[in-house]
Design goal:
By secondary structure, the chain is of the alpha+beta class. 43% of the residues lie in helices and 22% in strands. The N and C termini lie far apart (100 Å).
Length: 345
């Protein structure tokens, strides 16, 4: 009888002569398994992000803002936003109204109006002072904020379009509660204040220097008119704060921090009023443009003022410098670079 190994014997294991073949066969299967797991995880994450987007988009308050009317400016190059800060107290508790010195007035009016133009030469943010004396369709001439009081967003948009000859594409409005909530959600906003700000009516007492303003302080900062330049200084402060708020909310410290970005996203979408055709991606474009302004890619300014006056119906008001304001709005209408002399970059 032979003692040689019976390699060729029928029934011998198939892998007897191929050592290591088992490992080579298992490794590809393991790689395929991990590939499927990664694909499934990616799809789940994608579905989650899509779901979050549509959920946040559904939280926006949509209102009917735009209407066609005889003589409305045609579509102009670039994208134009009308940004409105209303004094609606909705969402503030009784203690907050007392703390922030907002009073108990019902309804909503506006003291903040800005025109944001996004074009090929960078964004331009223009404050439209509330005391600007302008023709209001169907109501004669009055202060600009009276248009909002008379006919809400529709009449305000029409008044701005007819005064500037610029076609407004998008509208965004936020009240006191939303402003406070958004500021607190990002942990406050750093502002450098050149001199003491003490205003009992606005509920603030701020010392000079760079400091982080929480919601109530920030609200007082943008509401205060206790300056020699009154409303003209206020609109400048409003532009500075809005730019700083958007810059911080789009910073990695907020975007990558779930304890910051989630409350901010919920509060901002729940408190923004936009046109019925606007969506979350429109607000993302708005935020990106505002971040460009703080990054030095844009310009901020106020409509050039020509003088002051008064009337029995409007009280004290300001007028625009017809020539310089006309040049500014012409450049925006034609999406041309706005000269640096109009503002700061």
């Amino acid at each position: 009888m032979s003692n040689r190994p019976e390699h060729g014997r029928v029934g011998a294991p198939a892998y007897a002569d191929t050592p290591g073949s088992y490992d080579h066969d298992v490794a590809p299967r393991r790689r395929r398994r991990w590939g499927r797991r990664l694909l499934i995880a990616f799809l789940v994450l994608l579905l989650l992000l899509v779901g979050v987007y549509f959920y946040l988009d559904s939280r926006l308050h949509r209102i009917d803002v735009f209407e066609d009317y005889a003589g409305r400016p045609g579509d102009t190059p670039g994208t134009n936003w009308l940004i409105v800060g209303s004094d609606s107290r909705e969402g503030l508790s009784a203690s907050q109204r007392s703390e922030f010195k907002t009073g108990k007035a019902a309804g909503r009016r506006t003291d903040t109006m800005m025109l944001l133009h996004i074009g090929d030469h960078g964004p331009t943010l223009v404050s439209l002072p509330r005391d600007s004396y302008l023709p209001i369709p169907g109501h004669g001439s009055n202060k600009l904020n009276a248009a909002f009081a008379f006919g809400g967003p529709k009449l305000l948009v029409r008044t701005v379009e007819q005064a500037t000859k610029i076609h407004i594409d998008h509208y965004a409005e936020i009240g006191f509660a939303g402003f406070v909530g958004m500021t607190d959600a990002v942990g406050g906003v750093k502002m450098c204040i050149p001199e003491e700000m003490k205003d009992h009516k606005a509920g603030i007492d701020l010392k000079p220097g760079c400091q982080t303003l929480k919601g109530g302080q920030a609200l007082g900062f943008v509401r205060s008119r206790a300056f020699a330049r009154a409303d003209l200084q206020r609109v400048e402060n409003q532009r500075k704060f809005l730019s700083a708020l958007v810059h911080k909310s789009t910073s990695p410290g907020v975007l990558l921090n779930p304890f910051r970005i989630i409350p901010f996203a919920l509060r901002s979408t729940d408190n923004f009023a936009v046109d019925q055709d606007d969506h979350l991606y429109n607000l993302v474009g708005f935020a990106w443009a505002m971040r460009g302004i703080t990054g030095g890619d844009g310009l901020t300014t106020t409509v050039p003022v020509g003088g002051t006056g008064s009337s029995p119906s409007a009280g004290e008001y300001i007028t625009w410098d017809t020539q310089r304001a006309g040049t500014l709005f012409r450049d925006l209408r034609e999406d041309q670079p706005v000269p640096r002399s109009f503002g700061t970059r």
